Amino acid sequence: MTEKIYYHNPNQFDFEAMVIKTIQNENRLGIILDRTCFYPQGGGQPADHGFLNQVQVEDVQLEGEDIIHYVETPISEKSVQGRVDEARRRDFMQQHTGQHILSQSILRVGKWNTVSVHFGDDYTAVETDASSIPSSKYIEVENVANQIIQQNLPVKIEWVNPEEVDRFQIRRPPPEVKKVRIVQVGDFDASACGGLHVASTGEVGMIKIIGDEKIRGRIRIHALIGKRAFTDYDNKLRVVQNLCQIMTCGEDTLVQKVQNISDQLKEAQKSLQKFQAERISVLAQESINEAIPIADVLLIQRIFENTDNKLLKVFVDSVLEKTGRVTVVISKSGDQLNWMAGHSLSRPINLAKFCEPLLELIEGRGGGKPGFIQGGGKKVSGISQFMSEFKTKLAEELIGHE
Ligand SMILES: [Zn+2]
Q1: Residue 125's closest CA among 222, 229, 227?
Q2: Which residue from 70, 153, 162, 169 has the fewest beta carbons nearer than 10 Å?
Q3: Is residue 310 predicted with pLDDT exceeding 60?
Q4: Which domain holds residue 137?
């Protein structure tokens, strides 16, 4: 049986202990001590991390009356110096106490019960029995919760026999155990809980609801509690200050200014697209004038720079408006190639089959319908040979071998 120092003194993080046993559990090395400050995973609270001598403790589990410290490497010494990761533990003590306050606040504001809780690395989640909660209610919940924090109420722990539980107005029925651990937040909340808590509500600091989600038809509330809420405020303040500097405005006009710029950008993009489409139509006309006649067919080839697929398609569609044409276009952006080929012939040519043997020239690939295909490639130096082979192959296809 391991003595649980964390229950007598949750603020003790360093301790000395004797190694009772070393066990091997599914390829994991576990150390059992006579006493420990390490809190094992349970009741939704994650396990403490830290060190035994110089060896890292990765996980802590309760098995029967023993607490098993899972470590990376064996510990040869009989006596150990233990050190719990204090920042992580304090964070979870804030989360646990904050969750009790939050659950009771949710109950008082909307008569919604807490069904389950989750203490994650990013936020604490409280699953309620509500199928919907209007966002205005969250302001009320936050007000109730943060008033309780400001009142700095004592958080008291009592171990009682199951028959004594009725003395307390506990939020949820207790588990069936020999002794029930009751956590009381002043006279605001009482609940059966095996987790670790701060000594008074002031230590929780702050509770901020950041959003919710619907799971299994119920609302699950996400909250930042304690130092996490402050860190989040700090991060958001920096973002806002940086944006104000970039936009040369104050916080009060920031949203409007960003909205104006976004609207202007959309307008500018529309104009640019219109201009580009017009330019592509002109290029298409030029290219048709310079087209290579093969039998009764016109072959239109063009190489573009940094032109997106949408514009290439506008070009292809423009030149294929009339029947009797074949086109192949390539755009190069750095060492990346995009290409398209299409035809408006009355006789069938399967362009996928037609282009397949040529693709190795540009280290390309692609696919599509028999009349139109597109793809990519990466050998820029192969473009002119690709174009010239395309012409030769088309001539063979249309007028046979010479
Ligand atoms: Zn708790």
Answers
A1: 222
A2: 169
A3: yes
A4: 90-233
For residue 255, is it within any domain? no
Tell me how far the alpha carbon of residue 29 lies from the centroid of ligand 1, in angstroms.
29
- pTM equals 0.74
Q: How many domains does the chain have?
A: 3
Cα–ligand 1 centroid distance for 195 (angstroms): 5
**Count of C-beta atoms within a 10 Å radius of residue 161:** 9
100 Cα–ligand 1 center, Å:
6
Higher pLDDT: 174 or 187? It is 187
User: Would you call 49 helix, strand, or coil by DSSP?
Assistant: coil
Angle between helices 251-289 and 309-319 (to 10 degrees): 30
Give 191 Cα–ligand 1 centroid separation in angstroms.
Answer: 8
CA of 94 relative to ligand 1 center, distance in Å: 10
Mean pLDDT for 183-204 is: 95
Q: Is residue 132 located within the same domain as residue 166?
A: yes
Say how many Å lie between the CA of residue 172 and the centre of ligand 1: 12
Listed ranges 72-86, 171-185, 387-401; the one with the highest mean pLDDT = 72-86
Distance 57 CA to ligand 1 centre (A): 23
d(CA 185, CA 191): 9
pLDDT digits (tens, 9 = 90+) for 252-296: 999 999 999 999 999 999 999 899 888 998 999 999 999 999 988
CATH of the domain at 12: 2.40.30.130
Rounded to the nearest integer, the mean pLDDT of the chain is: 93
- Distance between CA 32 and CA 170 in Å, rounded? 34
Q: What CATH number has the domain bearing residue 370? A: 3.10.310.40
Residue 56 pLDDT = 96
Q: What does the pLDDT look like over 219-245, one tens digit per residue?
A: 999 999 999 999 999 999 999 999 999
Beta carbons within 8 Å of 235's beta carbon, 6+ residues apart: none
Q: Residue 35 forms beta bridges with which residues?
A: 3
Q: How far is the CA of 223 from the centre of ligand 1 (A)?
A: 16
2 CA from centroid of ligand 1 (Å): 21
Mean pLDDT, residues 381-388 taken together = 94
Work out the average pLDDT over 119-140.
95
